[in-house]
Design brief:
The complex is a heterotetramer of chains A (102), B (511), C (631) and D (168). Chain B has 511 residues and is mainly alpha-helical. Chain B has 20 helices and two strands. The termini of chain D are far apart. Chain D contains six helices and no strands. The chains are: A mainly alpha (102), B mainly alpha (511), C mainly alpha (631), D mainly alpha (168).
């Protein structure tokens, strides 16, 4: 029987993979992708909780809707920033964007 | 019966003036200066009235006001003055007024300067009139920021850059206040159980009688306060900010800083150190006396070899603070009377000194003693001011400095004869360096290069007349000051008597 | 009755000149005539009041045992109260008269001497301040009042020595005077503090009662120390060895000032102080011995310097020091009468000498070297006469004033100890010699062709005349009217003249004058050859025993050196620590900022590492700990 | 759907999701990453279906697989000039990141495993859409409207950013 724990496991794995990518990818577009992965992991958790803990309320689904909205905004603005940075600095590699150092 | 809230009025007059200044266009320089002068005159007038109206016979706090502010923490907006704080408040306003006129010729961003000056004065005055420790700290911190800005922008760079001087001054003050803050919090937390905690100074002063402060705690907490107030008072070896700071600061700031700000240290030591933590004071007193003697002699000798006028006066003020410390640490009524009176006396004379140096520097663009000389030819009035301040500084009878010093000596001699003798030796060295600068700056052959330098005239004379007349009047009639101070010290008499007999568990260091 | 009024209002005597000082100093100093007029008017008033007080003392039978005292509280705080007041006994009365008289004379004299000086008004302001302070000192009722006016006297002396403030030498002399006397004041202040602590009062009358009781109870040990400390004050102020160095330099001031302050009045303040508190010294033999020996050594030592000096005012200055030594000697051997008597006569003849010297200097346009003068007796007969009277008086030739007073001192010394007497007698011979040298060199011999001397104006001659008369009769008249019955300590002594002592000193003085005539008047004995014979002694004397150089060295090298060393300490050790702490903070920050790589992902790595640690703590370690505690 | 079928479907979809996610991170070609991301999103939406949240699954397909993935591909195209072969490099601290992520997974999973979940035994709603709709338009009204504003702001912001402000 597939239960809550299974879904949470999938969510965890997805989150951790996304995190790994977030920390290691040099290309900002790839970093954005990894953020999407992590957001999805969260959504899985939300919906799984909604299904198995409070199936009659569907609050988790509402929240995941909001998450998706925010994710959409984030990717839009994020990509716009990437274009901007690319336009100004001629690079999309995160480790080149280090002018905030000492 | 509701009485007119004089202290609040005094406290908020400069703030009000500052707000008015804020609304003026920056081009209206004359108007700005005029408003600053009027503001300070009103504040000074109110203070002078208070000084006059204070009832010596009914000693203790008068003109009190109290409004609860943060009851949960035991903070209230409580004001009141007694014979200790009123002279210092008077001094603040006196020097403030003089400082406004001493800055009359200032042409670099006068609007900001006078606004900051008024804030500074509010802060200083606030520390003296409040009866609540929390408000005390609040006002104290209010002082630090304007000073920093004023030194950095309007200061002058000589041996050290003005930025360095400003930083040193500010960081020292903040460091001192950090120690102080810890001490104050320790007092607050230990004085009363949760729920009845209060920042009220009177209540805190009761706590040791109720046995809420153990002797060890008092010793520890007093050390914290001593570090804080001591560095504010330029106690050796925490004095090195003082000469550099004064040298870098503009005239008005030097006047206020040397004149009154330093005195917050002495005031705090008495108000908090002695009244709240008497056993701590008794424990540390021998150490303070030792350091104070070093203060007196060391600073006087160093002043002897200085080349910059402001450094001489800077070190001289360090030296004079040594007398204040000795008077405090001798812990008897006579010496404490002297210590408080000496704070007042030193405030007036050092402010006058700095005002005169400021004038000389404005005209001649130098403070280097070997470059100066014979100024009595071109500036007889300034020379008179120098003479008055110098003579008061070396304790000439008939000027304000003598009686306070004498009282300190009488008190200190009783408690610490040997240290007192060393300190009295300081009067010889004081005479040496004071006469040296008087001779080298004022007297000697006429120097044609200073012929274009005008003497003080018109409004520039205000600081000289104001401070000079106080120097003389309070010197000839010292009871004007001593009576006031004594009425503030009198309530301490039982405490001092008890302290004298108190069996001290650890016995007092070095004794 | 005027004398009753004067007695009750004796406080007016110092107050009037003080008011004059304020008025002149603040407003009138630009109007020379008005300044001088006010100062003179006030001086006359003060003199009249002082005479009234003197009259009252005689009329009302005020004696040293029963002084007239007024007190008003000045400072009163818990544990300490200080009074101001008036203390009048015959000594005070005598001092009041002498001071007001001499100052009046000097002020009249200054009308001529200072004429045309740009600082005329300022000069009279200072003079008034000085007179006020000196008179305040004289009527002091207690130590604190005495100290207050003592210091104010010092201030006015400082101002007047530095009157020609544009002269480097004047400003340095003024500084030196102030600081040297300050060293003495340090001792005086300590002594006063001791008295305050021991007796709780500084009032002369009360101390006079308390001290004998204390001595009976606790012995003299501590009090001797106190007395010696107090004596430090007079050593400084009255130019006693070794703090005499300021007095010759003080001649940089205008000559009337030298006459008034540094000869006749202020410098005797120290003598007056010891006399005033003689109730203390009298009980302490060691202190008295010290006073006597200090006085004798000073007298001899200063006279030996005066022998070789060339500047007219310096010679007079050293003679002043020497005479002050005499007064101290008299006090030390226990004779207040002799000391005060000599103080009075000395005031007359020394003021006379200085004013005459001033007339000479004035006539020769600030020429100071006596060997550049000569033959002035024809052109300046009045001055010559005055100077001669003065010289004869100071030399102790009867019947001039100095003879009587000096004789009393010699007598008292002879009764006390023979070495002191011997020193005093030798000194009196030396005094006669160098004063005669001065007289002969300046007024006899050939006229110098470069000099165009002229007799002094009337305003300068009147004081010379008045003081000349006083220098003649000032000794004889008081002597016949039993000065010693009034001015004394303890029972009056009617010793009368001791003809052996008087004869010896007179003979010695005449001999010395004769020798001086041989050397400087007729030139039969060459002074140069004598100097050449004893080069060491001559140089020692001419260079004033190198004491100035010693002090210079002490001040410049020792005190200045310590100051410089401490400043070094301040800059590099104390400030070094402060700046070091600042630098340490900067370095630390410099190191720590390297952590800011600008790599966002690295920050993220650290962030999640931290989250991991926190999470691991919460999940595993904390439950384990809690469990451990619970189980 | 039968028990075993749904189990099988779960494992299949979970495998697709996780493997394609690993692919997103590991691929050296950014375009491949983007495509694998789309695949991952599809897997996730399948999981939503299994969780009986059909509406969310549809939204997921539309927004993520449709809009976001395409947008990202567009982003890749616009910013990648040279060859795609090595367009998705990793940086120098992958090993540390791996360690931390691994340990984090262990921590989270252990918590998940150790927590006693008090799951509801109630069946899922037949049709969750009305419930979601009602919640959105009543309880979460403000948040919903705010989300709308956020979207608008993001749109404006994205346009401004991408277009660039004229320097005066």
């Amino acid at each position: 029987m597939i239960g809550l724990v299974h879904y949470l496991t999938v969510g965890t794995l997805l989150f951790v993979i996304g995190l790994y990518g977030l920390l290691t990818k040099r290309n900002i577009v790839a970093v954005l992708m990894c953020i999407e992965l992590m957001l999805n992991a969260v959504n899985i958790n939300l919906i799984a909780f909604s299904r198995f803990i409070t199936p009659e309320l569907a609050t988790g689904q509402v929240f995941s809707l909001f998450t998706i909205t925010v994710a959409a905004c984030e990717v839009t603005v994020g990509l716009a920033l990437v274009f901007r940075v690319y336009h100004d600095r001629d690079t999309v590699l995160a480790d080149r964007l280090n002018w905030l150092r000492w | 019966m509701t009485v007119f809230p004089f202290l609040t009025a005094i406290l908020f007059t400069p703030i009000f003036g500052m707000l008015v200044l804020a609304c003026l266009p920056r081009e209206a320089e004359r108007m700005i200066k005029l408003i600053a002068a009027v503001t300070m005159s009103v504040a000074f007038g109110l203070t002078a009235y208070l000084y006059w109206a204070y009832d010596f016979a009914r000693s203790g706090l008068q003109f009190t006001e109290s409004i609860p502010w943060i009851p949960e923490l035991g903070v209230s907006y409580a004001l009141g003055v007694d014979g200790i704080s009123l002279p210092l408040l008077f001094l603040t306003m006196l020097i403030g007024l003089a400082a406004v006129f001493a800055s009359w010729k200032l042409d670099k961003r006068p609007k900001e300067f006078f606004m900051l000056l008024l804030i500074l004065l509010t802060g200083v005055a606030g520390t003296f009139v409040t009866r609540d420790l929390f408000i005390f700290l609040l006002f104290y911190e209010l002082v630090v920021i304007p000073i920093y800005i004023m030194v950095i922008i309007w200061g002058s760079t000589k041996r050290v850059s003005k930025e360095y001087a400003g930083m040193k001054l500010t960081i020292y003050l903040l460091l001192g206040s950090a120690f102080m803050l810890v001490g104050v919090l320790a007092l607050y937390l230990n004085a009363y159980p949760p729920g009845s905690r209060t920042f009220s100074m009177e209540a805190l002063a009761q706590a040791h009688q109720l046995g809420h402060f153990s002797e060890e705690f008092q010793i520890f907490a007093f050390l914290l306060l001593l570090l804080g107030f001591g560095s504010l008072l330029s106690m050796w070896p925490f004095h090195s900010w003082s000469p550099d700071g004064y040298a870098g600061a503009p005239t008005a700031v030097s006047m206020i800083h040397a004149g009154v700000l330093k005195k917050i240290g002495g005031y705090g030591l008495i108000r908090l150190g002695l009244l709240v933590l008497p056993l701590g004071a008794k424990f540390w007193a021998p150490v303070i006396v030792g350091l104070a003697v070093v203060n007196v002699l060391y600073a006087a000798l160093v002043a002897l070899v200085q080349k910059d006028l402001k450094y001489v006066i800077g070190y001289s003020s360090v030296s004079h603070m040594g007398y204040v410390l000795i008077g405090f640490a001798a812990l008897n009524s006579v010496s404490i009377n002297g210590a408080i009176a000496n704070m007042f006396a030193h405030g007036v004379m050092s402010a006058l000194f700095f005002a005169m140096i400021g004038h000389v520097y404005d005209k001649t663009h130098t403070r280097h003693i070997p470059d100066l000389g014979g100024l009595a030819h071109q500036m007889p009035r300034v020379a008179t001011g120098f003479m008055l301040a110098g003579m008061a500084s070396l304790g000439l009878p008939g000027l304000i400095g003598f009686i306070p010093e004498f009282t300190i000596f009488v008190g200190a001699f009783r408690a610490y004869p040997w240290q007192a003798i060393l300190a009295i030796l300081g009067i010889v060295f004081t005479a040496l360096y004071i006469l040296r600068i008087l001779a080298n700056v004022l007297f000697g052959p006429r120097r044609p290069e200073f012929d274009h330098c005008a003497d003080a005239r018109g409004l520039e004379l205000v600081p000289l007349v104001l401070l000079g007349s106080v120097l003389v009047v309070f010197g000839i009639f010292p009871q004007l000051l001593m009576g006031m101070v004594n009425s503030g010290v009198e309530p301490m008499l039982p405490l001092l008597a008890k302290l004298h007999q108190a069996p001290s568990m650890l016995g007092g260091l070095l004794k | 009755m005027f004398h009753e009024y004067a007695l009750q209002h004796a406080w007016l005597i110092p107050l009037l000149p003080a008011i004059a000082f304020v008025l002149i100093g603040l407003w009138l100093r630009r109007v020379p005539l008005l300044s001088a007029g006010l100062a003179l008017a006030v001086s006359i008033a003060a003199f009249l009041l002082a005479c009234g007080v003197g009259q009252a003392v005689i009329a009302q039978g005020i004696t040293v045992e029963q002084p007239f005292i007024q007190r008003v509280p000045w400072v009163a705080i818990s544990g300490l109260s200080l009074d101001m007041g008036v203390f009048i006994d015959p000594i005070t009365a005598m001092m009041l008269v002498v001071v007001t008289l001499v100052s009046l004379m000097v002020q009249i004299y200054s009308l001529g001497y200072m004429q045309g000086d740009p600082g005329f008004g300022r000069f009279y302001a200072y003079l008034s301040l000085f007179v006020a302070a000196m008179l305040g000192l004289v009527i002091s009722v207690n130590f604190i009042q005495l100290f207050v006016f003592w210091e104010l006297v010092g201030l006015s002396s400082y101002l007047l020595i530095g009157y020609y403030f544009y002269k480097i030498s004047a400003r340095e002399a003024a500084k030196k005077a102030f600081i040297t006397t300050r060293i003495g004041d340090f001792g005086l202040l300590l002594g006063i503090l001791f008295l305050q602590i021991l007796f709780g009062t500084l009032d002369f009358a009360q101390l006079g009662l308390a001290i004998p009781a204390y001595v009976q109870q606790s012995g003299t040990g501590l009090l001797t120390l106190v007395a010696l400390l107090i004596f430090l004050g007079p050593i400084g102020k009255s130019g006693q060895f070794p703090l005499h160095v300021w007095l010759p330099d003080a001649m940089e001031g205008p000559t009337p000032v030298s006459a008034l302050i540094h000869a006749a009045t202020m410098v005797v303040a120290g003598v007056y102080l010891v006399a005033r508190v003689f109730f203390l010294f009298d009980l302490l033999p060691v202190a008295l011995q010290t006073v006597a020996w200090t006085g004798a050594i000073t007298a001899f030592f200063a006279a030996s310097i005066a022998l070789t000096q060339r500047e007219i005012k310096r010679i007079l200055a050293y003679s002043t020091i020497s005479q002050l030594g005499y007064m101290m000697l008299a006090l030390g051997v226990g004779s207040v009468t002799a000391s005060m008597f000599h103080l009075m006569t000395h005031a007359f003849f020394k003021a006379l000498l200085f004013l005459a010297a001033g007339a000479v200097i004035h006539a020769l346009h600030d020429q100071n070297d006596i060997f550049a003068m000569g033959g002035l007796r024809h052109k300046m007969p009045v001055t010559f006469a005055a100077m001669t009277v003065g010289v004869l008086a100071i030399a102790g030739i009867p019947p001039f004033a100095g003879f009587f007073s000096k004789d009393e001192i010699l007598l008292a010394a002879a009764q006390a100890s023979w070495p002191l007497y011997l020193m005093a007698v030798v000194t009196s011979g030396l005094t006669a010699f160098y004063m005669a040298r001065l007289l002969f060199v300046v007024f006899f011999g050939p006229e110098k062709p470069d000099n165009h001397p002229h007799e002094a104006p009337l305003s300068m001659c009147i004081p010379l005349g008045v003081l000349g008369v006083l220098a003649i009769v000032g000794g004889f008249v008081p002597y016949t009217y039993h000065f010693g019955d009034w001015v004394r300590f303890g029972p009056a002594s009617h010793s009368g003249l001791d003809w052996a002592i008087a004869g010896t000193s007179t003979a010695l003085a005449l001999l010395s004058i004769g020798l001086a005539w041989l050397m400087y008047g007729s030139g039969r004995v060459s002074a140069e050859r004598l100097a050449w014979r004893f080069p060491g002694l001559y140089r020692l004397s001419y260079h004033k025993y190198y004491i100035d150089e010693l002090y210079q060295w002490l001040n410049q090298t020792v005190v200045g050196g310590i100051g410089r060393a401490l400043y070094w300490l301040d800059l590099y050790v104390i400030d070094g620590i402060v700046n070091g702490l600042g630098k340490l903070t900067l370095r630390l920050g410099d190191g720590l900022r390297k952590i800011q790589t600008g790599q966002v992902q690295q920050y993220g790595l650290v962030l999640f590492g931290a989250i991991l640690l926190v999470a691991a703590w919460l999940v595993w370690i904390e439950p384990a700990l809690m469990g451990g505690v619970l189980s | 759907m039968s028990e075993s079928a749904s189990t099988l479907a779960f494992y299949l979809l979970a495998a697709i999701t996780v493997v394609s996610a690993v692919g997103v991170v590991k691929s050296h070609n950014l375009v491949h990453s983007a495509l694998l991301l789309a695949l991952c999103f599809i897997g996730v939406s399948g999981l939503y279906v299994l969780l009986q949240a059909e509406f969310i699954a549809a939204v997921q397909l539309l927004i993520y697989s449709g809009a976001v993935a395409v947008l990202l591909v567009l982003g890749v195209m616009l910013t990648q000039r040279s060859s795609m072969a090595d367009s998705n490099p990793a940086n120098d601290w992958s090993r540390w990141a791996l360690l931390i992520c691994g340990l984090l997974a262990v921590v989270i999973l252990s918590v998940v495993a150790a927590t006693p979940w008090h799951g509801s035994i109630a069946a899922a709603l037949e049709n969750s859409i009305p419930v979601v709709a009602r919640a959105l338009l009543t309880d979460y009204m403000v948040a919903f409207e705010t989300a709308a504003v956020l979207l608008l702001a993001a749109m404006v912001g994205a346009i401004v950013l991408a277009k660039g402000v004229e320097e005066e």
